[in-house]
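Need a sequence for this fold. Nothing fancy.
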């Protein structure tokens, strides 16, 4: 009888590599989410707020990213929905706004963004507070 040696160390190594890759992807999605949340906050400040759907999608995508229980495709799809609406809202402010938005998204997804590139102070009222914006909890 031929015995095949156990290859557990290789399996563990492959699993660790897969985990590290997933963590990197989720980190980049987290940065993309921060860009989207910041942009939504800026739109509120400019009196051109995004729809309730964007706010719902921001909350849902944050949960998806933090939980680690959703597929990369599901998270990417949720973030893309937000990106599309925010981009269309930014178009009324001209190419500078849209170019800056796309530049930040590119940096986020490539892993080249830093905290200094992003101002998230405008996003604060969007994330935790149903008093300053229409509450998405009541549908």
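Here you go.
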């Amino acid at each position: 009888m031929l015995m095949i040696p156990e290859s557990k160390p290789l399996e563990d190594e492959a699993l660790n590599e897969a985990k590290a890759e997933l963590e990197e992807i989720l980190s980049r999605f987290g940065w993309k989410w921060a860009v989207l949340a910041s942009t939504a906050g800026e739109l509120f400040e400019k009196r051109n707020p995004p729809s309730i759907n964007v706010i719902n999608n921001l909350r849902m995508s944050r949960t998806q990213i933090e939980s680690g229980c959703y597929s990369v495709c599901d998270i990417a799809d949720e973030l893309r929905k937000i990106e599309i609406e925010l981009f269309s809202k930014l178009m009324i402010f001209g190419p500078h706004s849209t170019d800056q938005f796309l530049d930040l998204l590119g940096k986020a997804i490539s892993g080249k963004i830093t905290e200094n590139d992003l101002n998230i102070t405008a996003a604060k009222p969007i994330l935790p507070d149903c008093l300053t914006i229409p509450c998405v909890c009541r549908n």
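For context: Helices lie at 8-45, 52-67, 72-90, 95-110.
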